[in-house]
Amino acid sequence: MNVIDLNNIEKYRENNRIEAKKATGGLPKSLWETYSSFANTLGGIILLGVEEYRDKSLHPVNLPDPDELIEEFWEIANDIQKVSTNILSYDDVYVQKIEEKHIIVITVPKAKRFDRPVYLDGSIHNSYRRNGEGDYRCTLDQINAMVRDSEIKTQDMNIIESMTASVFNTDSLHSYRMKMSTVKPNNRLQNLSDKDFLKAIGAIVVGEDLLFHPTAAGLLMFGKSEFIKKEYPYYCLEYKETTQDDKHTIISSNLNSDCENLYDFFIKVFEKISSDIKLTTNIKSGITPITTALQEALANCLINADYYGSNGVVVMKDDESITISNPGGFRVELDAARAGGISDPRNTAIMRMFNLIGIGSNDGFGISNIFSVWKSHELVLPVIEESFNPESITLKLSFVPESKSTNTQILQNRPDIETDRQDAVISYITDNITVTSKEISELLGISHKKSKQLLHKLMAKDFVIIKNGKYTLKA
């Protein structure tokens, strides 16, 4: 990751991916908090031997013995009493000469999920993350979410031993079985009793008491909401639709008795958005690929949600787009997800249950296929956003033709800008120091109003501030 031009270092300011430390008196203690925060967030660059002036500009100071500092750095980085894990390679730490002065550059990648949280001093409670204000200590909820994601066995395989098979909504189960018989008419599972069927698909298992209990996947997929909420207090599934004539439609696990679980929600929401697709777009042909991509997007949202998270699943539709949001962060890098071929679902058992009725696949090409369909139909490419407080992933699928948004390809041609709009804005401000909402509008190919909304969201997250009518990263 190289988010700055070191030869023009004075142009930059500290932000959520750049941290400068003078370090003329040795390695500062706060260096390790920044290492932890970058590793647990999006990665970043630590600059040792760089001073921040009063105007927030960065300037190099000469480190007297950078090689000795690097040696000390590696000694601490490899000490598990100080740092839980070393995620760096030797190429990530090097001496750079700027204006005849020597500084140290430390490039910290985002840690793999198996290594998160990266914490300090032998205590998982010393885990940090990064925002516009700098490094902050993670909350217990954030730590627990990272721990859940670090496990090899996905959380939906857990047995809920405090519950019995009475948790299931039989209408949901029978609808699912009917769907399976349509998709796979000769499947041997169709001849099983409900109990044996639930056992075969991993919805119930035998517990330590030798009785059958639901798995987390079974509970979420077919359970009654009253039981789901006992295990997942923040559980909530919502579909919200607003049309141009201000008509509102809401499907909610809290409001609709026939939409209690993941299966019911998926069926009802997909039926709604697929039946509206011709009215929502001006596309006259090729509806099937788009409908299939929407199906994949909705299933991916439910498969990858962290249902212990404090925010629920939300699907929002208007006349121009559908936005799908789920609790939980990415388990693979966004670039890898877009390229396809890497499958690391948060809920493997739920994914298999969707696969059994012909929905989705486990080849890791879900996001890649969605982008391909949107590109082939010449629509504005999807936008993916990852937030950290609380953790969530948001996918926006626009039905606006690309011809009406001529600048969207800028995102694809700039290697230092991710497809995520918020990351794109942060990267663009990093390069240009200050920007106007008009520049962001042109960069992303969105309306002036939407660019302002986007910038205000970044201001609300304390990533961006406004000075003299221009936006800049918060120091």
Descriptive overview:
The protein has 475 residues and is an alpha+beta fold. A hairpin with a 3-residue loop joins β14 and β15. The chain has a six-stranded mixed beta sheet with strand order 13-12-14-15-17-16. The chain has a four-stranded mixed beta sheet with strand order 1-2-6-5. A three-stranded antiparallel beta sheet has the order 7-8-9. It contains 17 helices and 19 strands. The relative contact order is 0.09. It has three domains: 6-152, Methyltransferase, Cobalt-precorrin-4 Transmethylase, Domain 2; 165-404, Heat Shock Protein 90 (2-Layer Sandwich); 421-475, Arc Repressor Mutant, subunit A, CATH 1.10.10.10. The two termini are 20 Å apart. 35% of the residues lie in helices and 20% in strands.
Task: From the structure above, extract its key features.
35% helix, Arc Repressor Mutant, subunit A, 20% strand, alpha+beta, Methyltransferase, Cobalt-precorrin-4 Transmethylase, Domain 2, 4-stranded mixed beta sheet, 17 helices, Heat Shock Protein 90, 475 residues
**Total number of beta strands:** 19
Task: Outline the low-pLDDT stretches.
Answer: 282-286, 406-419
Q: Taking all residues together, what is the mean pLDDT?
A: 87
Percent strand: 15-25%
Intertermini distance: 20 Å
Write a brief structural summary.
This protein has 475 residues and is α+β, with helices and mostly antiparallel strands. It has helices at residues 30-40, 66-77, 140-150, 170-183, 194-200, 216-222, 225-231, 262-275, 277-280, 287-303, 334-339, 348-355, 366-376, 409-413, 421-432, 437-444, 448-460; strands at residues 18-21, 44-48, 50-52, 58-60, 93-98, 101-108, 119-120, 123-131, 134-137, 204-206, 212-214, 237-242, 248-252, 313-317, 321-327, 383-388, 391-398, 464-467, 470-473.
